Amino acid sequence: WGRGYAKEALAAVLRFAQAPPLKLSRVSALIVVENSASVRVAQACSMKKIGRSDYELDGQPRSILIYALDQ
């Protein structure tokens, strides 16, 4: 952990998603609120927080953060 592999992997996925033939106009990530490491990775790859959603899983309230990168 902490060696930058997740950031490197996400950066590669974002490059692939925004290049031909895909040319996606938006790439989104749904991150469980408690996963601060994934939030840092998304932010390090220029993704911006665009929302939050609350839901219930196995009777327990949960929240996710929605991050996105627009082309």
Note down, in words, how this protein is organized.
A three-stranded antiparallel sheet has the order 1-3-2. The protein has 71 residues and is α+β, with helices and mostly antiparallel strands. It contains two helices and three strands, in the order H-E-H-E-E.
In short:
It contains 2 helices and 3 strands; from the N terminus they run αβαββ. It is an alpha+beta fold.
Describe the secondary structure blueprint for this structure:
Layout: H1 5-18, E1 26-32, H2 36-44, E2 48-57, E3 60-70
Antiparallel strand pairs: 1-3, 2-3
| Total strand segments | 3
Low-confidence parts lasting 5 or more residues at pLDDT below 50? none
Spatial order of the strands in the main sheet? 1-3-2
Distance between the termini: 29 Å
**Strand-residue proportion:** 35-45%
Order of SSEs: HEHEE
- The dominant shape is globular
**Total number of helices:** 2
Name the helicity range. 25-40%
Mean pLDDT: 95
Q: Describe the largest sheet.
A: 3 strands, antiparallel
Class from secondary-structure proportions:
alpha+beta
| Rg measurement, Å | 13 Å
What assembly state would you assign to the polypeptide chains in this entry?
Answer: single chain
